[in-house]
Amino acid sequence: MEIKFLHIGILTWITFLPVLGMIVVLLLPKEQKQAIRWTSLAFTILQVILAVVIFQNFDRTLAGINSKEGMQFVEQYRWIDIKSTSWIGRIAIDYFVGIDGISVPMVLLTALISCIAVISSFSIEKSIKGYFALLLLLDTGMMGVFVALDFFLFYVFWEIMLLPMYFLIGVWGGPRREYAAIKFFIYTLLGSVLMLLAMLALYFSVTIKDGNEVIHTFNMLAMMNPENFVHGSLLEGVGTSWRYVAYIALFIGFAIKVPAFPFHTWLPDAHVEAPTAISVILAGVLLKMGTYGLMRIAFPIFPDAAIHYLYPLAFIGFINIIYGAYCAMAQKDFKKLIAYSSVSHMGIVLLGMAAMNTQGMMGAMFQMFNHGTITAMLFLIVGVIYDRAHTRGLDDFGGLMNKMPKYSGIMMIAFFAALGLPGLSGFISEAFSFLGAFQTFKWLTIASAFGIILTAAYMLWTLQRVFLGTLPEKWNNLTDINGREMAMLVPLAVIVIILGIYPSPVLDLMNSSANALVDFVKNSAGIAMLGQ
Amino acid sequence: MYSLVPLITLFPLLGFLANGFFGRKIKNEKIVGSLSTIAVTLSFIVAAAIFIEMLGFPVEERKHVVSLFTWISAGTLATNVAYQVDQLSILMTLIVTGVGSLIHLYSIGYMHGDRGYWRFFTYMNLFIFMMLNLVLADNYLLMFLGWEGVGLCSYLLIGFWYERNFEKSTTSEAAKKAFIVNRIGDFGFLIGLFLMFVTFGSLNYDSVFLQAAGLEKGNSVIMWMTLFMFLGSTGKSAQIPLYVWLPDAMAGPTPVSALIHAATMVTAGIYMVARSSILYALAPTTMEVIAVIGLLTAFFAGTIGIVQNDIKKVLAYSTVSQLGYMFLGCGVGAFAGGLFHVMTHAFFKALLFLGSGAVIHAMHEEQDIQKMGGLQKYMPWTYKTFLVGALAISGFPFLSGFFSKDEILWKSFANGSAAYWVIGIIAAGITAFYMFRLVSLTFLGSERFDPHHVHPHEAPKTMLIPLIVLGVLSLIGGFVGIPHVLGGSNAFEEFLEPVFTAANDKMLLPFHDAPGVEISLMLVSVVVGLFGMYAGWKIYTEKRQIADTAARKFPLLYNLLLNKYKIDELYDAVIVTPIKQTSDKFLWKIFDVKIIDDALNVSAKTIDKTAGVFRKIQNGVVQNYAVVFVAGILFVIGWLIAR
Question: Most exposed of B231, B449, B535, B594 (fewest Cβ within 10 Å)?
Fold first, then answer.
């Protein structure tokens, strides 16, 4: 499948459209606030349209994972080619993009969330030119991560996304923004360094034929084939200790993003200080990069290590679920509570993928998508009330239900989706993740499923404190949500409901790839065990 | 006709959507209320038509699955949104839509003038929709959708008056409690379903039951599966240990208590056990657990009911107690008997609750029966219908409750043990006693309210019609299940029995053909029931001093009952508080903030300090660099020489 406009592939378009938007925004005079806002919106809407085109034309039967033929909308060009250096040899790096069932839901999610984040950012007044330019750059970075099939390219996008995020929190954030921004930056950087080391180790271990020449490569797909590993290189063979080390390095790099316990403490701080739109992006898309990286890179490149460390992975998932829920319950700040609920919900993704079976893997992938939409809603909901009341203290509110009926209706959908009510999208992905995990880890799953009770407890407690009871005098003049806020919340609510009743559109996208990924990892590891 | 079954769920869904989106703008209460009522009534008509058609079919052709679309499919798990029409599901559908439409009609009058009128009917229709999905589903996942869906509606409706206080707390607190306690049950249900999927590779009734029929009795996996699922039942159907939410659920408007917390939703647990009868039949241990839990609940809840003074609380505990009977029936293998009681209980308990609603309205929201009395002359129709309900629940001969309760008691003796029967009979006596205590304190005796402020009046027609219809049903509803021993044909059981054939084959229950024993047991239960009724009536109309003396003489027991055995306090101390404390005081404030985050901050500071040292070295003074440079060279040279 290939779609091109002006001889440029659709994935390149969808990735770099925001950069085009950024250039336009930078060219506009900074007084033209409306023009800047609408330009940004126009480009992200275009991105959504491209995402819909991709969704329409995506071949549901192809699996991808480790075969280039299975990837769709592929583009591959030589990007960097340094002919010969004294001790490294020839460096040839490809611009290699393509998507399969793992990445396509993330591409859709990124386009959607970016667009909604732009709408949500209309209320930003402080130096908006810089803000929107950075936001659009961030968009490109995220999209790039999900389409890249070359590890180097992946890494570049990963780092591109880091910088705008740092500034968006550090400049446009709340009172403790600098602390939060630097914390986010240092954590992520630590992850990046580990990822870089693993990537370089892989680079020097893997070769492919390029014409007549044998060269090292960053091509992920090549890294998944054990035959490409140079004999005697660091990561050659199966189940060797260096492979485990490299896997753990990659894992920590990704786990920080998830964020997996105990690397999670950057998240609440970053969320609390970040402006609403940035929280939405952070929770909606950024966290998924961690779990996506595990599925796309860590699992298929190191299947032996992945299988070896399944139980620890599941255990971290379990801790995330329970611990995140417990911490959420203790919060008095609405936003911090939602932040910790993300820790808990991302734990379900970890648990699901650790199951290493179709249900678990699909549950995890679907949960990534659903958590993206549901948490985005939750953060927007916090933003709405914060914009009006300038406080997020849970105990400052009460009885908003009758005061803001539309708002409360939407809130109800988001809250109940978050606590996994059947009929809404969150339930299906949670149930799949648990169902898959139950087949592999019986007791751990039962213990983790206890999280659904805790989640109900803190969600309903929050709902009670903010929306039920009596309305304090001081909030008598709060207004219900306006058209712009509806425009960002309603589409998400519709998606949450539709996917709860009829999840097939998204499940079909992932099915082949989830199967293929599980089979590939299991078979590779199986062969590995036999070979030992 | 069978293919019309989606219409049954469609009408309430449409009603929900219409009122949900436009209800607030339609200012006219009549339109909002009738819209919802008509939606449910239409569902009832369709269900009735299907039922009549079903009666015309031979027994083996009565089951039919109507599939709508593929809901979820991943790997080997494929689940449809599909409705299974059979004897069991159509019975439940008729109860839900029949009683449901009457209660909707009643609510038009009852909720008159409420600020959230449209919201009320929106939630009610959503409830009916979810409940119908629960009973009509052809697989456990869809059943679970309905299962949690009715929980959501229950939550919304208990907290409907979310600004009000309720007892020592608030309605929203009661709503939250209901949802969370139910969630504990749902957790169990879900684990049960996981086990089921792992064992049978499917969650569809047909496939699961077919495979289960090939298994041996006493399989330990099935035992755990059914135990976990039964945990779900104890939540939804308010049994020990998870019954605590139901009495608090009375914080909702009275029609809600009637529909959701008495007639329909709380019977979902019994429906689920009956639907899975083959699985339970394979697990005798679970069956025993169910019977014992049901029996204990019937007894303990009944004892609490004796001393409560809130008219709805008494009814709530009696509901818990009656649900216990239904589980006792299922536990001894009398699934049909359990469902018979589900049906009759739906009639008389809905009637009693609606009657209590009329009383509460007439008394200007007063619920304390100590402050009532003598209402008989102000509200004759409410009194008459309430009396019928009370007689039916107390097992007065030939009223509906008599047949269903006796069926369960007889089976508990025949299939279970004499001990079951004895405790069951005592609980029945207690029921008769507190029901007539309730009738006497409310409608008979002296007027204990202030006639200057309270002017009791008869309920309006929209409220009386449902009362009368339910009254008639409570009178004659039992005649569909007259046992053979009384010359009846037990048509009800015969109709349902095909659903339980597979389970009966596994259980191999002893066949008791002892009409003499059955008749004498029945007589004993009639006598005990009549005695309870008489005592309740006599003491609370004429001999109040007996009750007062008893309360004075046994203050410990009296207070224990009045405080509901302090179970709520116990749960708070043992479960709720520790969870909150761990969450707030330990995991968050100490572990997360102090240990994990501070570890990070400390290491960051250490790096900062170390960096500070190095920063001093790089102070930009060239001479210093030169000194270090020279020293370095000297060191290297020295090292090379010394080597």
Answer: B594
- B194: nearest CB among A428, A438, A514: A438
Helix (H) or strand (E) holding B73, with range, is strand B64-74
The residue of chain A with its CA nearest to that of B24 is A405
Residues on chain A touching B604 (C-beta within 8 angstroms): 186
Torsion (CA) A103, A106, A111, A113 in degrees, nearest 10: -170
| Stretch A304-312: mean pLDDT | 90
DSSP, res B594: I
Q: Is A377 within the bounds of a domain?
A: yes
A472 touches chain B (CB under 8 A): no
Residues B180, A458: Cα–Cα separation, whole Å: 10
pLDDT confidence band for A230 (50 / 70 / 90) = confident
Query: What is the ipTM for the molecules in this complex?
Result: 0.89
Q: Contact A380/A493 with Cβ under 8 angstroms?
A: no
- Please check whether residue B571 touches A, CB under 8 A: no
Over residues A468-492, the mean pLDDT reads 87
- Within 10 angstroms of residue B609's Cβ, the number of other Cβ atoms is 9
Name which of B400, B587, B371 is nearest B482 in CA terms: B400
Please tell me the number of Cα atoms within 13 Å of A421 on its side-chain side.
27
Residue B137 to residue B146: CA distance in whole angstroms: 8
Q: How many residues in total does chain B contain?
A: 643
Cβ atoms of residues B120 and B111 within 8 Å: yes
- Any residues with CB less than 8 A from the CB of A206 and at least 6 apart, and which? A216, A217, A219, A222, A223, A228, A229, A230, A233, A235
What does the block give as tokens for B485? 């021993």
Of all residues in chain A, the one with the smallest CA distance to B179 is A456
CB spacing of B77 vs A435 below 8 angstroms? yes
Q: Which residues pair with B85 in a beta bridge?
A: B64
Residue type for position B509: L
Residues B293, B365 contacting (CB under 8 angstroms):
no
**Nearest chain A Cα distance for residue B290, angstroms:** 22
Give B510's DSSP letter: P
**Domains in chain A, number:** 1
What's the whole-number mean pLDDT along residues B483-487? 84
pLDDT at A531: 45
**Residue A402 domain boundaries:** 309-501
Judge whether B323 and B237 are in contact, CB under 8 Å.
Answer: yes
Which contiguous run of DSSP H or E holds residue B165? strand B165-166
In this predicted structure, what is the pLDDT of residue A277? Answer: 92
